[in-house]
Amino acid sequence: MEETPEGLATAAATREAAKRKRAELEAHGVIDDQPVAKKSVVPPQAISHEVALPDNYVCEVDAQPELYGSLQQPHWKGKMAKQYPFRLDPFQSTSVACLERRESVLVAAHTSAGKTAVAEYAIAMAFRDNQKVIYTSPLKALSNQKFRELCDEFDDDVGLMTGDVSIRPNATCVVMTTEILRSMLYRGSEILREVAWVIFDEVHYMQDRERGVVWEEAIIFLPKGIRMVFLSATLSNASEFAGWVCHLHKQPCHVVYTDFRPTPLQHYAFPAGGSGLYLIKDEQGNFKTENFSELRHVAFNITDQNGNADGEKPTSLAPARDDGGSRGRGRGRGGRGGRGGRGQGGPSASEDVYKIVKLIKARNFQPVIVFSFNRRECEQSALFMRNKELNFNSPEEEESVALIFKQAMQCLKEEDRELQFIDSLLPLLKRGIGVHHSGLLPILKEVIELLFQEQLIKCLFATETFAMGLNMPATTCVFTSMRKWDGESNRWVKSGEYIQMSGRAGRRGKDDRGVCIMMVDESMDAFTCKQIVTGKPSPLLSSFKLSYYTLLNLMRRMENTGQNMEYVIQHSFQQYQFERTLPDKQTEVARLEGAAASITLATEEQYAQYQQLKQDIARYETVMLSAIQQPAACLHFLRPGRLVRIREGSLDWGWGIVVSVMRKAVAVNAGVQADDLGPPSAYILDVLLSCDAASVKAGKPMPLSKDGNAEMHVLPVPLTLLSAISTLRVSLPNDLRQPEPRRSTLLTLKELEKRYEHGLPRLDPVEDMNIAEPAVNNAVRRIEQLEQQLSTNEVFKAERDATRYTAFEKKAGLTAQAERLKTSMKESQLGNFRAETKSRSQVLRKLGMIDGEGMVTLKGRAACEIDTADELLTTEMMFNGTFNGLDKHQLVALVSCLVPGEKSQEQIQLTKALSEPLSQLQQTARNIAEISQECKLQIEPDEYVESFKPFSMDITYHWSKGASFGDICRMTDKFEGCVVREMRRLDELMKNLHLAAKVVGDGDLAAKFEESALTIRRDIVFAASLYI
What we know:
Strand content: 5-15%
Radius of gyration: 35 Å
Helix content: 40-55%
């Protein structure tokens, strides 16, 4: 980012103004920041410590147990590298002892538990020992925040490196994104030679589908002498992760874990359209099933089968309900992030939020964070408050907010300060209400964070990203929805996500308890609610995948080292997790096979004979069915009451009763005679069939399951599913719409099946139906012979004997489980990655990025510099001359198509100056996709081409030519913050292209990229961060 002296000065002045105003308000008693609750100390029994050790590990410090303790019980009795103004909790002091032993440690604890104190101690040790330390975070914004926090703690010997900015990169402590660290490792940066510690903040981000692989690669390639500090939310498999680190680096890795919350939480539910709160989980972690049942009964008129509707009344936190509790029943609003909606005339979601916020203010449970999983819903709820008489701030606080806000906006041009979305925010902020989501301008997000930290915002509407990063707790957290859109489906919130966000409730040392309130509708039952609020933390899973950037950089890194791609795959967390399960799987396979062998029902030969007979019968039945399904042969017999057997692929519906036969409407034309009966597919039978009651209730009737309850229902059945016609007919009741007549018919059918124990008699296709085809006659006779042989088979007999069949089913199930386990043991990702690596290498070879020996060519080295976009397409366009014929404005506009961005609903209309370069891009992308298909990669050319969206092309072109920010925002339906983020990513990609051009020695093209980038690097889009 372009950081001007004026911008940096404004940022510093804003921070100072916030601190100064906070001090003034405290002095006048407007803000009371004194602790109101005794600081809760984490009890020693609430933490666990274990250590993963490499084989034959010997540590020198074990010779001084009085100073360092032992591996299993570390303690530090020496001089502290950093003094704290509070007594360390046991998990913090144990972690410090591990650090003093110069051993890696994973600290897993709830949000706001105090993990940062451990990271700060590692930094203090580096300062003390004249070593370097790297602090990584998953997001640029978090890196900026952490940079400011550490600068305040350790003065100015702290640096910052992100894709946007580089400040003091040679400082003792450098804060950076994990991508920057990976890039340094690939390039063999000299800085790493001096690094003693690397701190991975929010390491649970490693399971992110898109970016999680970055953490794995960085951990794999860190030099062996570097020690690591991992900070994470609570994990269910922390010891497994530590074992992987130990396996990789042949060094101990400690796990210090606590799920203790220093400030206990109470969890409440608020029914959609209601006005009362129901305690559903108390401070001791007890789930109140009776309260949740009462909520559903009173608010939605639902009585749970397994619940009790007579639970406790809403607690004293909530006012008494004045609506009888039954108004506003929800009826599924749906949509992304939706909670399910409401019936017509019911209260809106914003009105429900307003009720809760008003209640919180009345009970003095602010500050409150209102979490929403939808950015527009987040803004709508906040704007709804603007029309209500709700003010959290005193006149003095309003004045402070106005001063800090105006000070922060000084770094913007006057024209930008008057933008509607900036100007309209101040009145809301002055009332102590803020909004925080990724669509906001970065400078607005930062000033809101500063105001929240200084207690000048008491009610913050935010998305879940606010739950990550700096310690910004509140007294209360509200969830406007318990469903979220994850890019694939609108699913329930996972327990791990709920734990992370609810951890923001309860300020340690200030609140005696934290409060969480979830808004629910009738779609949430007690089981789902309990799973969310009492569930265990999510395990850390590998997201390892191969990309061309990874592949090329690994090939370049491994040249002349004797290593290959398998080294990385074998050392991935995914492969470690797979191999770790093998011994247990082998034991389980042996157990299953032993259990199956102990069940002696039939010899292998008899089982093989049974399978073969079944296949032969099925083959001859196909010949027979093709004849009996012909309308001319069967319609005469399909009168009401006839018993027929229905089979739908592998689903056997058994015997049913014909109710009627109907022919589909067919247009008669010159080629079809009016009296032509047509094919079997032209007919539909209405058949009374035995269905599984549960499946009927679910709206999708299925055949009766072994343990299910039978119900007879009339279902439409294509004639092509007819598998047999019985000689029997029964009389049907007059009205089959009523359940009682259908039940009596079911009893009749069961009696017939009991009477004919060898099966209901069937019409003979030859003798009864007069089908004279030789092939059919042969098939009928062969089926008779095969069924005779089948009747003597032991496996077949077991099917007829309930006791024996249960044992047979058990044996078959055990054998199938053993086979599935054996298959999973063979399906190592190593084999899959080998095949993928081979295919991707072929693509690189065809594109000229590696040679026949697998060495990275000059073109491939250029691709190694592209880490913010599709490296293949970007490099191909650079080498095929696409960029050469464009002016600087066209160039930056075209490159914007390569930057991953937000979806948009707008209709794109491009001028010829932009549409022609876009066509070249699309043709190049199609060529790459076709080559990939030739190399046996699963890729759809049209989807690949369409993934490069031109939504930002027009606005980038106009911004490059000098348009104002207000002008370009009016050209798109994207959030302003999204426009800024994409512009900054574009600038980062232009820097990549500049470096790539220099790598290949094309100075003119490198200068063109730099000149083009300068056209967008201005004004509000690149305003200085308030944290820098």
